[in-house]
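Structure ticket #2291
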Amino acid sequence: MNTKQFHRRVWAIVLLLALMVTGMGAALYDLQINNGESYSRLTEKKIAETQSVPAARGNLYDRNGQVLVSNRVIYEVTLDAGLMKEEERCGILLSLIEAARTEGVEWTDNLPITRTAPFRFTTDDPYYAVSQDEDGKEVKTLTRLGRLAVKMGWVDDPTKEAEPEPETETAAPAKEPGLLDKIKSFLKGGASADVPKKAKEPKPLLEAEALLGVMCESFGVAGEGAVDRKKAAKNGETVPNLNIGDMSETDARALAGVLYELNLRSQDIYTAAEYVFASDVDIDFISRVKERDLTGVVIEAATLRQYHTKYAAHLLGRTGLMDKKEWEYYKTVDADGDGKTDYQMNDTVGKEGAEQAFESLLRGKPGTRTVERNTKGKIVAQNWETEPEPGGNVMLTLDIGLQGYVENLLADAVPKLASEETEGAACVVLDVKGAEVLTAASYPTYDLANYASELTEKGDDPLHPFLNRALQGAYPPGSTFKMLTAIAGLEEKIITPSTLIRDEGQYNYYGPNGPKCWIFRQYGSRHGLINVSKAIEVSCNYFMFDVGRQLGIEKLDEYAARFGLGEKTGIELAESAGVMASPGYTESLGGIWYEGNTLSVAIGQESSQFTPLQLANYIATLVNGGTRNAVHLLKEVKSSDFSQVLQSYEPQVLDTIEIEDQNLKAVKAGMLALTTNNSSVRQYFQSLPFQAGAKTGSAQVTGQNESNAVFVCFAPYDDPEIAVAIAVEHGGSGSELASMAADVLRYYFSSQETRDEIPVENTLIR
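Resolution: structure written out below.
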């Protein structure tokens, strides 16, 4: 080959190589620049998961179609620690915390340690709570912090008794160690087999700062310059409680709070699998977080219950993540019978009130979707398997206008009563014919829309604002029980409407020191010769003593049960059964029942205690002629678009008491006379455009100066529509409640005529 040919070949190879390099460069440019992002997505590791997506929860409405509770779309920030590399976790979380601080976003942090130094516990018992069992024995229960601290080995379980040291026995003479024993001793560092092992010292409960230091070390929270514990031990140096180097104490505490929440879930101490870092965040915060591209930080849309009224908190209730006890129930629920549980551990459920009672109607049917996430936790693809079906709209029997009026009335009037010990109160208004709850107000109350802050502020309030007194408060009925004694006496032919009994002041049937009529005890007077109507009007104890004695305790208990006193009313919400006095109940408490105790029962004293709801239904049963209906809050359920009625409440008759017309008229006449004759309550009812029947009651509370006050009434007299029961703890005489009762009646009947019709899009809502 000559030189010329050689050069040609060299140039050909160079040209070929140049073309190849140019082609590869173009391909690389197309790969990295033009389509880099798409190819990057394709090469990223994807994590596929199947999710249960909750359905939109149904709304709650009052009987007139006014929306009470609905849903609002919000954005939540959740954390998935599994996607974060351990060495990057603190940096990611600190960046997220900084973004939250910048935008003024509050994040979930339930670690009971103050957020700034000097660090101290925010509760008196951070590790365990103390309660009493049925036998009065002290029981210690670990808190969430306590369970985590024990599980992580930071402290020893404070709820367990320390094991007693074993009794020492006389040691046998030590044997001369053999060759094998000597070899084992040498391998162990020369330790003698005869030297007893040192007992393990118990780990004490740490103070707040010391615990925070242990948590930070366990969670890997530290900055530059943190002391190496091994080196410090070797050199005899002291390691600070909070070994965080150049990291600020505030940042360390914030990180510990977030990691505490994550660890509660990873250790199965908190049933909610997902940690919601912040809820209902605005677009500025979302933008700031997305700019930082934080692995494991997920922002998704969610719904939040929105309250359109500040009233009826005890009736409406709230929703929240189910707890461990609730999960034990819900994990078995299979309403559609498909063999699969309807709930997951981190589902939101109704916690109290209507939200809990009508959970199955409101919840809807969750959907299922398959989601693909990249390594940063961002959704890159999703596919719906089944779409969620919204829950039904629940129409309640509640009249929110009346409810609000009554709550404001209690809040204004109760503190002004002539009592130094006035505490809680309740008022119930029932529809007489159907036992529909129109109002069930409890005082004091709370704000559902700010439940968390309200619980923090009012959780230790001695007035117990979270107690639903209308359904769960039980009070002696006092003289309001006398209509039952009268009806029982009339129906059992003990007396007739015209029977006259002379009030002798003191009823000495069982001995010379018998119980006295109130008028004799207070004024030395007597009611004279009176019939049953007059006895109810003037609240004559003597008359009822005599009727009650002739009836006997068994008949009184029988009629009380038939009227629903000391029995649950059937309402869908949690309620107390109350107590009807009886020999069996007295003996169950270790007491002795005497025949004379029946006299106290006949006038509503002794151990009888009933809820305001029971008292209202007792009056409704009486004035409707003896039909005791199950009390209910549900009116009907409509589809999510109001196109159809899914369910209507079916009335339930619990008992029918055959009351002769003349007997009912006699009892009602006594109640009418209280509001029309010269009584202390007449002034409050005389201005009403209709007649009403009423009865006062008061009962002494053991160990307290002021009696509980009770008042019941119904209206209109000729054709009763509603029954009202009011109870005030330590409110004194029931007559002091007459003004409130008259105001309730006046509002109800005036609002029936003047109430503005609520505009709605679908007539089915009316």
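Closing remark: The longest strand covers residues 67-79.
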